[in-house]
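Hi L., both proteins are below.
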Amino acid sequence: MSALLDQAAALLAAAKAAGADVAETVMSTGTAVSVQRRLGKIEETERAESRELGLRVFIGKRSASVSASAIDPAAFTRLAEQAVAMARVVPEDIYAEIPQAPAPMDVKSLDLDDPVEPSAEILIARAAAAEEAALAVPGITNSEGASASWSRSDFLLATTRGFAGFYTRSNHAVSATAIAGAGTEMQRDYDFSSVAHAADLDDPAALGAKAAERALARLRPARPKTARLPVVFDPRVSNSMLGHLSGAIHGASVARGTSFLKESLGKPVFAAGLRIIDDPLRVRGRRSRPFDREGQPGTVRAFIVDGVLTSWILDTRSANQLGLKTTGHAGGTSNFYLAPGTLTPAALMADIAEGLYVTEMLGSSVNGITGDYSRGAAGFMIRNGILAEPVAEFTIAGNLKDMFLHLTPADDLVFKRGTDAPTLRIEGMTLAGA
């Protein structure tokens, strides 16, 4: 990492020499290895190495950025001169700036790096275990394959305002996709695990078997009748609600006036008792980070407290537009999650005489200005509190303002994707089917 620090210092010096008032650089290096296996044969093995940089310069309130797919000190002067020349001719942006940032925290406490690269044999064994477990389940007729991968990357941010921070993260992943049935009645489903440390990886055989179980459960789906009913979202898709929320409370959307929640700060947006949190400091977290893309320190922040919206998601530019301070979210959220409720998923569904359990979302029609929501979906009917027949080829619709207010979480939160929610129940949605 010392070499990257030296190169960053050299690039920033070149930017100053070219005429930049202030400048920042992002540099990253990475190694990635993956294997793909299908029906017992290795279809693909790949190893990739990358080195990339970005440079942003300011001349007064004018700024420009350049990037390169190689870190070549011999090209630093040319890159810096190009960036400065571009900055001289663009319009001023009175809100943009490179902020002051404190010294970065000790990243070791986040435990994001597993430095041991697994051999190709280990990756092949993981993929094989996942696929063979799926194919061993009676009723599974084919496989879309299984994959296993490992990657490790370094990230560095440095500015002429005195900030220099870096961290390394690793990732181990396994996935499998199973196919059940034949001809036009085939159904597919999947499972996966993606973690920083190999020790936390789910058992590949267990996830292969789970993929098979899910595919079998989807066979011979019906098309449900149009109705207004409660909808329960499986954790595989419930996190999409947080995606819609984060887009609506991002400072840039609020500043443009294009968010359906633009007038909701300090008001109830969800039911009382609900909390939605961003935690960049989660140990071994999927998206943990010691600082954001502007060097601002990672801090745990609750955006929804007792159902009330407490803050926008802000980087420096959007904070300046709104007359506020950055929340340390340049580059977006980190480990963004909805805190679990007190009911089990079974208890959450127990009083539903007829409802819908969604396991897959297809396409999207969500209006960020009005909150109108309409998405294709697949899943299962709920009858008398339990899952019944599989269903497909339908749309669920509502308005996100109403959906958020009538949302109830179960107690089964698992940190798996970086944006996570437990099983969710939403009352009074419209199912458009047969």
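That was the first. Here is the second:
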Amino acid sequence: MTEAAPQFTPRVFSGIQPSGGLTLGNYLGALKRFADAQDQGMETIYCMVDMHAITVWQDPDALRRQTRELAAGFIASGVDPEKSILYNQSQVGEHAQLGWIFNCVARMGWMQRMTQWKDKAGKNSQNASLGLFAYPALMAADILLYHATHVPVGEDQKQHVELTRDIAIKFNHDYGTEFFPLPEPVIEGAATRVMSLRDGTKKMSKSDPSDMSRINLTDDADAIANKIRKARTDPEALPSETEGLKERAEARNLVNIYAALNDQTVEQVLADVGGKQFSEFKPMLADLAVAKLSPISTEMARLMEAPEEIDSILTRGADRAREIAQPVLKRTLEIVGMVHG
């Protein structure tokens, strides 16, 4: 007998690994969108996925610092701990419990097809941790533990949401229920994929050897303006139509960044700046970036000087997260057939 489908509350869930070095790419691709989602009529849950981080070895002191820095980045970017649930994953043990159940639902073949497993493990897959292989099942648990319906992700993470849907479908089918929703990936915005300031064909990355390739969320106003002034461009004027950016990776990247920072479309930006040289456009972009980003770096620095404030916020967030997670896990255990008081 199939259990009646529940009515799922619209709910956003997303998590970020505390791997250190937050950049403009993290802000525009994730943190800014997370803050914006708080006012869209859905419950929002944001997590520092520290359990995912240890799928490769982490220095314990660095992991603590990076977790707090990421939390500071969330808060400084506009994620309000009163509007959203903000916590670190390891404080809510239900993630691991549901993750084990999903390890038993997911198939080996599904995991072996995951692009990030192939990229990260490569030819040394026999030396990679079991956690690195199995972590997409834990990611599915992160999402489904809250019956999340929407998951904001970058294009490169879409496969994980598809796997989450596969796990939900198989669980529901295997147990004759419709207990878990099928979450939707949410991919949007002019600069969900921010590219390097030195090479517009490569993603902006904290691991790039050149610090000039990226804007760090900890950069001060002078550093932000300097990096934009020295960003690689071409000698042509900016076009008035998006078609004119097609073969101009660096120009497209800077216009995308301007559009995302200013809550405009690329078309709207080009309508304003078409025909301008970069000698005119870069100072406009620098002023905008400083206005938007320097308050974030200032607030992050303040919070990092007050780790007890961050820890308190994360503990309160974990308590609120557990209120949602516990009944979902309890019902899951009942469906699976486990005796649970």
